[in-house]
From TrEMBL:
Residues 4-65 form the HTH iclR-type domain. PROSITE patterns: HTH_ICLR. Gene3D superfamilies: 3.30.450.40, Winged helix-like DNA-binding domain superfamily/Winged helix DNA-binding domain. The keyword Cell cycle does not apply. This is Putative transcriptional regulator, IclR family protein. The lineage of its organism: Bacteria, Bacillati, Actinomycetota, Actinomycetes, Mycobacteriales. InterPro entries: ArsR-like_HTH, GAF-like_dom_sf, HTH_MarR-typ, HTH_MetabolicPath_Reg, Tscrpt_reg_IclR_N, WH-like_DNA-bd_sf, WH_DNA-bd_sf. It comes from Gordonia spumicola. PANTHER family: HELIX-TURN-HELIX TRANSCRIPTIONAL REGULATOR, ICLR FAMILY, HTH-TYPE TRANSCRIPTIONAL REGULATOR RV1719. It comes from the Bacteria. Keywords: Transcription, Transcription regulation. GO terms for molecular function: DNA binding; DNA-binding transcription factor activity. GO terms for biological process: negative regulation of DNA-templated transcription.
Length: 289
C-alpha cells in the first residue's frame, strides 16, 4: 500500500532541504519534487510555522531548529516513517474510521511525525512536524514504561498525587493503551467541535484560528480514564486512545487514535483498543528489536 500522499510530500520536502547545501526557493523545491507551487507554498508555510524550516532574507528555505533537534537515526525521526509504517497507520485509520497519529514525546513536548486522516471524518489537528507543549496526563502511554523519577517529574507541574498517577498508568499496563475523555459536561461539545473543524477543512480557515481551535479540542479531550471508569457496559465519551511504540527497548513514541465520539459502546471500545495495540506492535516490529 502506498504511503499517505500529503505525508509523503512533507517528508520529501524535509529530505530535500536536509540534503541541500544552500537555501532553496519555493519554485526550486516545487520543481524538484514535481509539486504545484500553490501546494508547495502551503506545505512550506505549515513547516515554517512549526519551526521545522526557516525562510531567509532571499526567500530561500532551509531546515529549522525543530528538524535539527531530532536525531536522524532515532525511532521518531521522519526518515524512519517509511511507506511500510505509513501503510500500517493507514490500515488502522481505515479499519476504525478514526484519524491516526504517530507522535514523539520529549521533555514537556509532543511532536507529530506521521498522521493519517479518517476518510469519513477528517479533523485537521496538529500538522505533520508540529510540536505542542504537553503535560500530565498526555503521554501516559509513553510514561507507563519510564522509571519512577521520570513519572514523578511528569506529574510534578500539575501537583498530581502518586496514587492518581498510578491509576492512570495502570490502564496502560493492563490494556496496552491509555484512554482519554472530555469533562463530563463537554461530551457533546467535543464532537461538535470536531465536526466543525472537519467540515471547514484545514485549508479554508486562517491557520491561527485553526491552531486555536485545535488547542481547544486538545484541552477538551485530555482527561485520562482509570480502569474502574472503563469497567462498565455503558457507552462512554471517548476522545482518543494512545498506545506505546517501542524500539530497542526505548519508548518515546505513541500511536494515537482520534475517536472523538460522545458515546462509545463497550464492544466498540474493546475493538478500537485491540486494533490500536496491534498496529502499534506492527510499527514497533518494522523499526526492529
Amino acid at each position: 500500500m502506498a504511503g499517505s500522499p500529503p505525508t509523503r510530500r512533507v517528508i520529501d520536502t524535509l529530505e530535500l532541504l536536509s540534503d541541500a547545501t544552500e537555501p532553496r526557493t519555493i519554485a526550486q523545491i516545487a520543481d524538484a519534487l514535481g509539486i504545484s507551487r500553490p501546494t508547495m507554498s502551503a506545505i512550506l508555510a505549515e513547516l515554517d510555522d512549526a519551526g521545522w524550516i526557516v525562510r531567509d532574507a532571499s526567500r530561500g528555505y532551509r531546515l529549522g531548529a525543530a528538524a535539527a533537534g531530532l536525531s536522524r537515526g532515532g525511532p521518531a525521526d521522519l526518515s524512519a516513517v517509511t511507506s511500510d509504517v505509513l501503510a500500517v497507520i493507514e490500515e488502522l485509520a481505515d479499519a476504525t474510521g478514526c484519524g491516526a497519529t504517530l507522535s514523539r514525546f520529549s521533555t514537556g513536548r509532543m511532536t507529530v511525525v506521521a498522521k493519517v486522516h479518517s476518510r469519513s471524518r477528517p479533523v485537521p489537528g496538529l500538522g505533520l512536524g508540529q510540536s505542542l507543549a504537553t503535560g500530565y496526563p498526555a503521554g501516559a502511554a509513553v510514561m507507563a514504561g519510564r522509571d519512577l523519577a521520570e513519572q514523578t517529574a511528569w506529574t510534578q507541574a500539575t501537583g498530581v498525587a502518586a496514587a492518581k498517577r498510578r491509576r492512570v498508568l495502570d490502564v496502560v499496563h493492563e490494556l496496552g493503551y491509555a484512554a482519554y475523555r472530555p469533562a463530563s459536561t463537554d461530551a457533546s461539545l467535543i464532537e461538535s467541535l470536531a465536526d466543525l473543524l472537519g467540515a471547514v477543512g484545514p485549508m479554508l480557515i486562517d491557520p491561527g484560528v485553526r491552531r486555536s481551535a485545535t488547542r481547544q479540542l486538545a484541552e477538551l479531550s485530555s482527561r485520562a480514564y482509570r480502569l474502574d471508569d472503563l469497567d462498565t457496559d455503558e457507552p462512554l465519551p471517548l476522545s482518543y486512545l494512545a498506545a506505546p511504540v517501542a524500539r530497542s527497548g526505548v519508548v518515546d513514541v505513541e500511536l494515537q487514535l482520534g475517536v472523538l465520539r460522545s458515546a462509545v459502546t463497550a464492544d466498540d471500545r474493546r475493538d478500537l483498543g485491540i486494533a490500536l495495540v496491534e498496529a502499534a506492535a506492527r510499527v514497533g516490529a518494522l523499526w526492529g528489536p
